[in-house]
Amino acid sequence: MQGRKAGTPAGRSLIISLSSMYAYIYCLLVSNTLTSLPIFGGALFMCFQVASDFFTTCMGSASRILPAGIRKVRVSVLILLLLMNLFLIVIYPMTYPSEHVWLVMAVVLAMQVRDMLAKRVIRQRASNRIRETWFIIFLAVLHLVPALLILAVFLSNLSMSTALLLLAGYGIEDALALYIHLKDLDYLRAEPQQITQELSELLHERLEKNYAFRTYEALSLAVVVGLTGTTVLMYTYIAVSAQEMMLQMTTAFAVTFIAREVVDWILKRRSRRAGAHVNPTYVMLAGLFLVLYGLVIFYNAIRATRLNMDVLYTCLGICSAGSTLCITCLGWMEETMMNVARFSLKNETSGYRIIRSNQLQLGLLLGQMGALCALAAVCYMERRQRLGQMPDLAFSLQPLLVLPALVVIATGIICTLRFPLSRRLMDKLNRYLHLQEEGRENPALKSQLKHVVADKNRQPFGTSLLKACIRLLWHHRLVGLDQVHLDEENPVVFLCNHGLYYGPVICASHIRMPIRPWVMATLCINDAETVDYNYRYTIRERTWIPERLKMPVARLVSRICAWCMHQLEAIPVYRDSPGQLIGTFRQSVEAMQSGDNLLIFPENPNAIAQDRGYESDGLGPVFEGFAMLAPIYYRRTGKSLRFIPMYAHKYSRTLSFGEEVDYNPEAGDEQAERLRVVHACEQEMLRLMNEQNALLAARKQHGKKK
Length: 706
Hints:
Blueprint: H1 9-35, H2 38-59, H3 68-95, H4 100-126, H5 132-157, H6 160-190, H7 197-207, H8 211-241, H9 245-274, H10 280-302, H11 309-345, H12 352-385, H13 390-396, H14 398-418, H15 423-437, H16 443-454, H17 461-473, E1 477-479, E2 492-495, H18 502-510, E3 515-520, H19 528-539, H20 547-567, E4 571-573, H21 578-593, E5 597-600, H22 629-637, E6 642-649, E7 654-657, E8 661-662, H23 670-705
Parallel strand pairs: 1-7, 2-5, 2-6, 3-4, 3-5
Antiparallel strand pairs: 6-7, 6-8
């Protein structure tokens, strides 16, 4: 689950983004110290950064693997970029009365040239075109010469204490940049350095057919753009609002670092405790909602008449915590998407990581491009209106600064809700690839994965939220759960009493392990027959419902049932059609072969009277037909089917798990063995019921004595 977060394309790109963000903060500090215009240094850094990334990603050899739509608009983007460069590098400095703006430009340019040349040296070393000795020498020179240049600028224009303080800050930024450069070397060594445009287009053409890949591509792009823009926004506003900028920006960076480390520590503990049950999609949603919540508070804070820096730090901490969740989830999901590529391309994935890395770099570029446009607009308005206070200018442009980030984060939430792979399906995909590596096949699992990976699919967010609410409002104890031993290679069949809607609701909400329920076919669709079934067996006997409302309630319940059954992947049971019932058994065996457990409610609602319905309390007579699943499963897999009886007790609020009942395929008489299984399961369910009744009676008696 943890994976190699920094080793994935998502982890690599986002670590580079973190390094760039510290460099951006440093440029704000330098510009504020030399010119009292912090935003100019940030805009200048972003201008050089976007230009460098644009030519690397969109105009160089890497552009061959960009989507066709991006390649078509890159000329327009280049024109916009040149105009902003012209304004920030030429026009703006010429209109400013102090020559210190050129010193700011020299510092920023030295940092950018260092990084640009270092990247070229790293690529040369990764392809073994230069020796390790020369690589170390070149890298040392590239980091030492800019440091000496920047030191000379500081000492000649600032006091000794201020110069040394800024130099110390540069040392931290330079060390972080060197760390990123060395990490990049390890990454590039592990991946092929060249990928042809033909191979790129072939990979894209085949992967774009997969709904899972398309949704993840949109999700990762929206998340990277949104997080980049949000972080730049927060730091920029704090910079232009701070009275003591050095202290305020140091505090802001400390808040970011602490929030990231705390959330990362919590995630690691949660992952170790919950293991494979953590769903990355839910964590991603939590992170995006945190960022959205922080942005909303931030927007309200900057509209206030009196600025509160503590509120801004709180917003920064909330957004940093949300960003950490998103970064971690992108790392988890990236490994899964590599598995999707292996599954879809039959392990022909050469160059896949380079493609994904360039796509994520494109996301960083778009986020920085948006930030640059906002910064350039602020600089332009500042020179045009010549406002005395930068906070006044930021206040006048607050929609330009905040609303785009809100829109992008909201788009990320929508993309996350469309992502089709849950934790369970991710684990299944990983399991199938392991089986494939071992030379084994599982056609049922392959068919299921092909459906959820290639076709349009949705995670059951609605029922998951409903289950969480039921568990919170209607808590039940799970008794005997430690006796249940799950096995992906040999799933189990859970049997439970119905109790009208009580049994299905409690089982579906409180059993955390993956299960697929058997459901009457009439409940899986919303038609007149479904309405009649719900009215006849459930609604009609409810005396507390007015007679005139029973049929409308039955229609509403039928609509909800059809939706829930679809999200729960229910297996329809055609009780009155033997021909279609064979399909039920076939689908059930295929579900178990793919690693799913089954949930069956074996009671017969028509055993006592045609219109009696299910027993509200206790256990009614059971069908014997469910046991036919055992010999069919054995003939298909050669394994003995396991049944686990349960009982949902509404008065004691318990869901009890009984002892396992195994089908014996070596018994001489198959029919007799099926009847034995049915009788044993029925007796075990009755035992669980009587046990809870006795405990409830004992508690009541004890209460009376008190």
